[in-house]
Amino acid sequence: MNWSISLEPLISWPLLALVLVPLALLALVGLWFRQRGAVFRFVALLALAAALFNPVFLNEEREPLKSVVALIVDRSQSQDIGDRTKQTDEALAGLQQRLGRFKQFDVRVVEAGKSQAAEERTETRLFGALEGAFRDVPPSRIGGAIMITDGEVHDAPAGSPDFNAPLHALITGNDHEKDRRIRFENAPRFGLVGKPLDMTYRVISTENETAPVEVRVSVNGEQVAVEHATVGQAMPLQVTIPAAGRNIVELAIDREPGELTDTNNRAIALIDGIRENLRVLLVSGEPHAGERTWRNLLKSDASVDLVHFTILRPPEKQDGTPINELSLIAFPTRELFVEKIKDFDLIIFDRYQHRDVLPILYYDYISEYVEKGGALLIAAGPEYAGESSIARTPLMSALPAMPTGEVVDKAFYPRLTDLGQRHPVTRGLDGSATEPPHWSRWFRTIGVQNPEGEVVMKGADNRPLLLLDRKGEGRVGMLLSDQGWLWARGFEGGGPHVQLYRRIAHWLMKEPDLEEERLTADGRGMVLEIRRQTMADDPGQAQIITPSGKTLTVKLEKSEPGVFLGSVETSEIGLYQVANGDLTALAHVGPVNAPEFADVISTENRLRAPAEATGGSVRRLASSTALGSDIALPSIVPVRSSGQATGSDWIGLRTTDDSVLKAVSRVPLFGGFLGLGLLLLAMGSMWYREGR
Predict the structure, then answer these.
(1) What is the CA 214 to chain-centroid distance, rounded?
(2) Pairing of strands 245-252, 213-219
(3) Any idea which architecture 518-589 has in CATH?
(4) pLDDT digits 0-9 by tens, 443-486
(5) Is the pTM of this model over 0.70?
(6) 382: which of 135, 296, 593, 667 lies 20 to 30 Å off by Cα?
């Protein structure tokens, strides 16, 4: 119960002053001159003033409010090391039990670091969770905060937090921990394929080591070198990027006896391999309507350096024109097909026939070039079926099909074969999903027999139209029509000539995304996504090895012809190994080299400054001699806002004086007959004294 007096005047304050001030002056004058009845007049005036002021006794019924205490529990991955999780659970249960004894505390438990979002798992952010716990609490009601953590907090302020209450930190782990870790100091994001890339790294240890440490260097899961590093010093490293696209460079060191964890004994760098400009040699033979189609396409590709020769004047042509008057460049056959043939990534013969421009021996060089890893494309026309066909040269060993000598002049829609619907070169071509396909017709097909490799497109009478084949280490493509220019010119609406031609060229040059059998994996947030390209009907399940060594299986579901997808939500940050059949892939899930694992030694230093700034404390749950998970919890003591909030074996939390008003009862002092009686008594006494 809270009693108080409140004045509720019957008239306004100016009127009160107008009435009472003159009467008060008269009463004071009477007292000064000691007139008869002056005292009674003064008492009567006081009674009148009291009646007009109308004093009221107020009795307020209030309910005291509780102080809000935040219990912030660190559930980040570094808390899974050793006995920290057990210590955390025991401390949480003990604190909840002790705080439950005090009715003046409203305890809010917040577990931080459990989010599956990768961007939220990069760091341990306990003060963000603390701010969220107190967002709806006025400052006067904040009783304090207790953090249960290993001390590796990455958003700790340098000074006091934004609330005026004690902050206490209870540190898990032990103070005799040791750890050794490795990290990249300098790791470029991009590198040229086949070229050395300079990087630097450092091995860091909590102990003063001087002996060299062996560092295993792996690229895309394959160990390429073993380096010897000096602990604490920045060490140079040079690796060669093997492939275009995403490459994973991994550094690993052995686990030391007694080391806290080997989670940070690996460092990962994700490097995107970039090819230098691809060199393509285009040789155009007999002039035809689509002669510039390949040239325009390749010239428009910024990643291609094109060397194009058009044979306009074959050697047998003799018209008497002096050589010095010809504006033609002599065909540098020896330079291109002997000295620099290895420098080209792709050679294209566009309607080329053997007309003694190339010595017969050079065709053998081209076949050898393909066998050793080169790429050859034959864009065939009627000349391929003629007497001067390049199939009648030593190049025949590299060709996927021999001509029958037949040229079929018949209108047809180019269509994908069953293989073509799954092959990356032709899969999903714009317009291929309808029947007939949503593109224009062609009017010529070159007949071949005994085709090798994969027939991915068919022409008139279901004859092979596009062949893709592997020869030794190289690749060969054959387009058995010279009508692709109809698509480029927009005949009957045209067709996807750019898409098709570019895919053919890049498949021949071994673009990884266009491989028929390919397994890739990537991390999207905390989800591992798997993509399998295959010509098979069902690739089966994918096997996954997590960073901790656990084994998982994921079913791959068909997404489109030739493409199967799978995904799995994960809780571990690190490098995942994925296998399907004979193919393997690596993927890193979560932030690369996250601060969460940069330093896993439990520490009191990060939270000492903000805790002491608020009058709180930082202490370990386990004693310095403890080897297990035994913990010692401090006692909880409620303290006033100005009192000390920490002791040797106790921590204090502040109580609040705030309350909620539930009801108010009023008792007027001069209300009703009592007030009237007192007023009449005072007036009557005054008149009685005046009348004597």
Answers:
(1) 31
(2) antiparallel
(3) Sandwich (2.60)
(4) 999 999 999 999 999 999 999 999 999 999 999 999 999 999 99
(5) no
(6) 296
